[in-house]
Design a protein that fits this description.
Layout lengths: L1 H4 L2 H28 L14 E2 H4 L14 E21 L2 E12 L14 E10 L13 E9 L13 E2 L4 H8 L2 E2 L2 E10 L2 E2 L25 H40 L2 E2 L3 E2 L1 H12 L3 H8 L2
Parallel strand pairs: 1-2, 2-6, 4-7, 4-8
Antiparallel strand pairs: 2-3, 2-5, 3-4, 5-8, 8-9, 10-11
Helix pairs in contact: 2-5
């Protein structure tokens, strides 16, 4: 069969089949890439620091367009409104986030029976390995800069205990603190007081900076594109299979033709020289009846 496959026409056919398979593989990779494409690419504009009061309004929904936005705000911390959130990782170690209420200067004041005269926002100030190392927040008026993040969902059926929270959940925290709040929280990157940074990134202490970057865009699998990518792979294999099948059919035809010649038949089953030889043999050997007639008187 290899002799048949090495014919020039089948070598050319193999080259064509491999080239066609390569195109199908490239199409499969393209479809696979589209099946895992991020819904929304990372927006580089989130790194441009904006005022919190111009970015998000208290009492409003947290819009996805402002997630990960770097914001700045002036105000002060309340040391009596501080909690630890367990189960947070830093350099592969599990520890606690220190979350403190920050009174935002110039923030709109909400109205209603449960509204307070001051609007606050939770601030994740840093990470601790040991909750015993938790210290009061910086005092006085600060200029806070950090990344604006949506509220987390509280963990149900768990009592975290005094001074602790199950998550950075605005709904859980405002019930604990009894304040009006923005619908999100800030992961602090700097806390400037009197021109000096007093935050976790500048102070060499037990509190470690969070260093939270832009969150990656969510990805969803597009099953239709994934099916198309598998389909193109099948087509690539089918192109080579067709070439192999054609070569095999050609080989079998050659084998059948050689057998026909061996049995004295023309290709296609027609009588050849073998039958003519048998007829000549019959003519040169008279039957026994004719010989008997010759010897009678």
């Amino acid at each position: 069969m290899w002799k048949t496959a090495l014919k020039p026409r089948w070598i050319a056919g193999l080259i064509f089949a491999l080239a066609l398979s390569g195109v199908f593989v490239l199409l499969s990779q393209w479809q696979f890439g589209r099946s895992t494409q991020a819904e929304i690419p990372v927006n580089p504009g989130t790194e441009n620091v904006k005022a919190l009061t111009d970015t998000l309004q208290p009492g409003d929904f947290f819009h996805g367009s402002v997630a990960d936005q770097m914001v700045t705000a002036q105000g002060s911390y309340d040391p009596g409104k501080q909690v630890l959130v367990a189960g947070r990782l830093h350099d592969g170690k599990s520890g606690y986030w220190v979350v403190t209420a920050f009174a935002v200067t110039g923030a709109p004041v909400l109205t209603g029976a449960a509204a307070t005269p001051q609007t606050w926002i939770p601030v994740a100030r840093g990470w601790l390995a040991d909750p015993a190392d938790a210290a009061p927040p910086p005092s006085g008026t600060l200029e806070l800069t950090g990344r604006l993040l949506p509220s987390e969902s509280p963990v149900p059926a768990i009592d975290p205990g005094p001074g602790h929270a199950t998550a950075v959940s605005v709904a859980e925290l405002i019930n604990d603190w009894g304040v009006s709040s923005y619908p999100g929280f800030i992961a602090a990157s700097s806390e400037v007081a009197n021109g000096a940074d007093v935050g976790a990134a500048a102070a060499a202490g037990a509190l470690k900076p969070l260093n939270i970057g832009p969150q990656p865009a969510t990805q969803q699998i597009n099953w239709l594109n994934l099916f198309y990518s598998v389909e193109w792979i099948v087509f690539a294999g089918f192109a080579v299979f067709i070439w192999w099948r054609l070569v095999k059919d050609d080989y079998r035809r050659e084998l059948e033709d050689s057998l026909d010649y061996a049995y004295g038949e023309e290709p296609g089953g027609e009588a050849g020289d073998g039958n003519a030889g048998e007829q000549a043999n019959i003519q040169t050997h008279p039957s026994s009846d004719q010989n008997q007639q010759k010897v009678q008187p």
